[in-house]
Amino acid sequence: MTKKPLILVTNDDGINAPGIRTLISIMKTIGDVVVVAPDSPQSGMGHAITLDSTLYVEQVFIDDGPQTEYSCSGTPADCVKLAIREKLTRKPDICVSGINHGSNSSINVIYSGTMSAAIEAGIEGIPAVGFSLLDYAWSANFEATHDFVKTIVENVLNQGLPNGVVLNVNIPNLSKEKIKGIKICRQAKANWVEEFDKRKTPQGRDYYWLTGKFVNLDGGEDTDEWALENGYISVVPIQFDLTAHHYIQTLNTWNLND
Amino acid sequence: MTKKPLILVTNDDGINAPGIRTLISIMKTIGDVVVVAPDSPQSGMGHAITLDSTLYVEQVFIDDGPQTEYSCSGTPADCVKLAIREKLTRKPDICVSGINHGSNSSINVIYSGTMSAAIEAGIEGIPAVGFSLLDYAWSANFEATHDFVKTIVENVLNQGLPNGVVLNVNIPNLSKEKIKGIKICRQAKANWVEEFDKRKTPQGRDYYWLTGKFVNLDGGEDTDEWALENGYISVVPIQFDLTAHHYIQTLNTWNLND
């Protein structure tokens, strides 16, 4: 019998979120599961790490099963670092993050705690995938995600991922029958147009709530946004070498040393 | 007389940090300066944004001069969003972030609040540069940075930057005479090997401090780490389209839809 893979599970909505409970239940059918996840929601945390504060990690027992679970006071990136250095006895075969309540497609990847955890694992040389469902509700229905998530994780375990590449998977909020399949995509050139809702405190001080509209200006049919709008699950390979290699030659023509 | 450029200044060490005070004083020699910066240090915040909390922005008066300054309760990315939507009367000609107290070279770009502010401006279509000095001390000496920072900003104002590209500039902690020049680089493949310092609270509860060693495994002489170790200022063009385009073809050979 082949050795079961060791699977590290984390997220950014917190260890009690239905999305990570779903992901844990799917991963238990594939391998040995260790969970290290934030003790409270960390959405929009980007790739934050905790430098100026202490970190707590406590074993917790939430659902039945053989998995080991730890709740951590830090960010998603902290959770991955702590898992690797302090809680796992060996390097995991894969790290899965999510299932996020809400989209991490296109530019959202930049702000995403879910993806920062996957990227952190990628930096450590661990194959990693972030999963998100396009439904922000806590009561989101994750049923349709099961088989697709399992297929993607099994493929990553079988094929591996090259150093420096992690997968950003977004799942449309559709029933299983309506999902047309899985599509490999590029990140759409889309962004948020923020609007700040300006209010006054009871004491009369101005304050703001961040709100915004998502705008996709990318007409391409090879993007994650196109796939999701057309009923597909999007898989975008992403990298954390941010170098804009195509622009180095131009910069070398500037007169920076005159 | 040509119209003076409008320059948005921000950082992640907080509006009172010597690094941003230096950057403001340099920018005042180039154009009209508006500052929107965090009211307290935000290092290691990555690309965090404030979704579940309110934001305060207050005009402040710190140094003499014609600049307008606002202190903001949010993250560096929040500051840029608020500046653009609420505080600036027109789109700035450039956004500069820093000068950070400490390196944001190689993989540090991922964790950097300084660079997240520059990236946020880049997403908004504003030419943007993040500056960092390789000295974490609050009392760091920024004197040597003046002329180099000015040269880079003037070049960006003259040449522009293409959509989707921002500059990550790191400056070695050397006297002006010892700095050999400015070098265009790629992001080194380096990472942190974390070590957690495990302690006990007075009440006996375990907690951790994140610490770590920086490890550069990249032997290339075209990297930012090489440049900095050899006395050069590194300029890395970075992008926020994270797609690993080179891996799309391989992923299309996987059997994800069988």
Automatic annotation (TrEMBL), chains A, B:
Gene3D superfamilies assigned: Survival protein SurE-like phosphatase/nucleotidase
Documented EC number(s): 3.1.3.5
Subcellular location: Cytoplasm
Boundaries of every Survival protein SurE-like phosphatase/nucleotidase domain copy: 7-193
GO MF term set: 3'-nucleotidase activity
A Pfam short name: SurE
Chain residues that bind a divalent metal cation: D12, D13, S43, N100
InterPro entries: SurE (IPR030048), SurE-like_Pase/nucleotidase (IPR002828), SurE-like_sf (IPR036523)
Cofactors: a divalent metal cation
Catalytic activity: a ribonucleoside 5'-phosphate + H2O = a ribonucleoside + phosphate
Cofactor binding mode and count: Binds 1 divalent metal cation per subunit.
Keyword field: Cytoplasm, Hydrolase, Metal-binding, Nucleotide-binding
Top-level taxon: Bacteria
Described purpose of this protein according to its UniProt entry: Nucleotidase that shows phosphatase activity on nucleoside 5'-monophosphates.
Family stated for the protein in its record: Belongs to the SurE nucleotidase family.
NCBIfam families: PRK00346.1-4, PRK00346.2-2, surE
Name of the featured protein: 5'-nucleotidase SurE
